[in-house]
Amino acid sequence: MRITQGTFSYLPDLTDEEIEAQIRYIIQNGWAVSIEYTDDPSPYNVYWNMWGLPMFDLEDPAPAMYEFKKCREAFPHHYIKVNGYDPSPMWQAQRVSFIAHRPKAEEPGFRLHRTLFSDGRRLKYTLEAYATQKPEGQRYREE
Fold it and tell me: Is residue 96 within 8 Å of residue 26, measured between CB atoms?
């Protein structure tokens, strides 16, 4: 199973050169670059940890690539994504987001958890990552 979230999620992993090209595209559009990481990439987990502050007014992708590489070095067993945020008045929203680093080639996937409410008529479904059965920080380490 492969986690498919964000832009380019169905493509093979991007190389550093391709990541840099995407950051260049973000900068050319006048968007801010931000880097986030997590070890729980569940679709319901929308609050990833931010690496540093968003980088506004960049003219070159080098500073963003430096921060991405430092994040990857600090958190090799986490998912890392790069975001492009459009601060213009009509948008003020994230325009692009893609996973730039995955902790390992094989991803454990998700379990569908079903809860039956007391009235016997309503069901609630949630996804739970198999990786979250391990303690935080150890979820994607090799055994």
Answer: yes
126 within 8 A of 117, measured Cβ to Cβ: no
Cα 35 to its chain centre, rounded Å, is 8
Q: What is the pTM of this model?
A: 0.76
Burial grade of 28 (CB within 10 A; 0-12, 13-18, 19 or more): exposed
What are the two backbone dihedrals, phi and then psi, of residue 136, each rounded to the nearest 5 degrees? -60, 135
What pLDDT is stored for residue 104 in this prediction? 74
- The DSSP element (H or E) to which 86 belongs, if any, is strand 79-86
Q: Percentage of the chain surpassing pLDDT 90?
A: 47
Q: How far apart are CA 140 and CA 12, in angstroms?
A: 19
Any residues with CB less than 8 A from the CB of 53 and at least 6 apart, and which? 34
If you average pLDDT over residues 70-84, what whole number do you get? 94
How far is residue 28's CA from residue 18's CA, in Å, rounded to a whole number?
Answer: 15
Residues 102-136: pLDDT tens digits?
887 666 676 777 777 666 677 777 777 766 777 77
